[in-house]
């Protein structure tokens, strides 16, 4: 290997480490604030009666956990503080929870799309499926399915290497993992979101009773469509990277190619977390009603702080006069 190739590899590895050092912190701060505010907004009386809000709340909760599970351990690894590289069990649990939470956050956006499609239907019996009671049950069923079925292979396919790296045991496990992620998260769900969103728009245009359809919640529909666009946009890089990884997994690669692949994988993963950390800011830009609810929350928070602030005690005027006379005497 030439000296220039070695220096290039060192530089690429350095860039990968620096991305892990700074990007996760930005996403964690933005995502923590944003997802907490999302939950507060969609639990307010003006929005919580809408079944779509149930999916937004559930999605924000999963976004919150996926950010910490997926981003904080690579950051800690830079300082040799990552507990998941100390025990096999923690290594597997980390990937199991990471894949499950990011998948559920995607599923809940997909379910919100289905809910908007159902609510915009011209048929009464189909619209009846759009209810808070149904939404809560579907969220529970989705959680049970996701935590029980798709990613249990992680407990057999991931292991700590001698270099203390938590990774898949062989190429077959890598291929299986990529296929499951495509079907459950980065491939099929975004395609279904786009199709269902287009069908919802068709329903709205064809419906003669928009007051009972999508226009009833036009702000939520706008939020949903923008969220779908953002999710699809930032899912493309990780989908392309997984496709490339699966196509070349049985190809012998040079150290330089491996370093390039590692950097590309890191970039695609961090891009995919943009949609998990920026939903609040996307909603704030696109929806006037959402901004109004956020303003009311912040105003209530400010008022509660003012009420709890210790105010200076004002002495009665007669008492002040007595103190003044005593002062003059001395």
From TrEMBL:
<dbReference type="Pfam" id="PF00001">
    <property type="entry name" value="7tm_1"/>
</dbReference>
<feature type="transmembrane region" description="Helical">
    <location>
        <begin position="179"/>
        <end position="199"/>
    </location>
</feature>
<keyword id="KW-1133">Transmembrane helix</keyword>
<keyword id="KW-0675">Receptor</keyword>
<dbReference type="InterPro" id="IPR017452">
    <property type="entry name" value="GPCR_Rhodpsn_7TM"/>
</dbReference>
<feature type="transmembrane region" description="Helical">
    <location>
        <begin position="99"/>
        <end position="118"/>
    </location>
</feature>
<keyword id="KW-0472">Membrane</keyword>
<dbReference type="GO" id="GO:0005886">
    <property type="term" value="C:plasma membrane"/>
</dbReference>
<dbReference type="InterPro" id="IPR000276">
    <property type="entry name" value="GPCR_Rhodpsn"/>
</dbReference>
<keyword id="KW-0812">Transmembrane</keyword>
<feature type="transmembrane region" description="Helical">
    <location>
        <begin position="220"/>
        <end position="240"/>
    </location>
</feature>
<dbReference type="GO" id="GO:0004930">
    <property type="term" value="F:G protein-coupled receptor activity"/>
</dbReference>
<feature type="domain" description="G-protein coupled receptors family 1 profile">
    <location>
        <begin position="34"/>
        <end position="283"/>
    </location>
</feature>
<feature type="transmembrane region" description="Helical">
    <location>
        <begin position="54"/>
        <end position="79"/>
    </location>
</feature>
<feature type="transmembrane region" description="Helical">
    <location>
        <begin position="22"/>
        <end position="42"/>
    </location>
</feature>
<keyword id="KW-0297">G-protein coupled receptor</keyword>
<keyword id="KW-0807">Transducer</keyword>
<protein>
    <recommendedName>
        <fullName>G-protein coupled receptors family 1 profile domain-containing protein</fullName>
    </recommendedName>
</protein>
<feature type="transmembrane region" description="Helical">
    <location>
        <begin position="138"/>
        <end position="159"/>
    </location>
</feature>
